[in-house]
Amino acid sequence: MHGSELKDGQHSTPEEDPRPKLWPRVLGSLAIVGVMVGMMIGRLTAPVPVELQQVDVLPGALVVWFSAEPKLHGELVDGTLGLLFDARGTPQNGQLKLADKVVNWRLRHTDGGLLLTLVAARALRGDWAGAPQEGRWRLQVNLRE
């Protein structure tokens, strides 16, 4: 049986290659470039979030202005009116008059977006309608007892 000792400069195992291994670096660089390009494309194609711009109080109604049409879910629960908007904005509150009675409204942040709540001493009923106007989205909430 032959051993693994040197005989005339030949081995049973090949010598270590002194050149650097470039293939892992090439694959790593391609992966990093791919992630960066994907993030840039994602930022360019991401939808612009809808912003609450202002709230106007009218007699018996509330007008809410947005930068674009938000997703909206509204409910009448036990005489209160609640509207949930998929939008961003600053929390606000105030009052409006409905047949010489006070209706309190409050706009606050929740996990689902902005929640507009309208509460009065008596049960409220209402409807809401939105339409584009002046390059913005106008939502009017009309109230009645």
Number of strands: 9
Q: Please state roughly what percent of the residues sit in beta strands, choosing from under 5%, 5-15%, 15-25%, 25-35%, 35-45% or over 45%.
A: over 45%
- Per DSSP, the total helix count is 1
- The structure class reads alpha+beta
What is the overall pLDDT average? 86
Q: Summarize the helix and strand pattern as letters.
A: HEEEEEEEEE
Q: Output the strand order for the largest sheet.
A: 3-4-7-6-5
- What overall form do the CA principal axes indicate? rod-shaped
Residue windows where pLDDT falls under 50 for at least 5 positions: none
**CA(first)-CA(last) distance:** 105 Å
Summarize the main sheet: 5 strands, antiparallel
Q: Helical amount among residues, as a percent range?
A: 10-25%
What is Rg?
33 Å
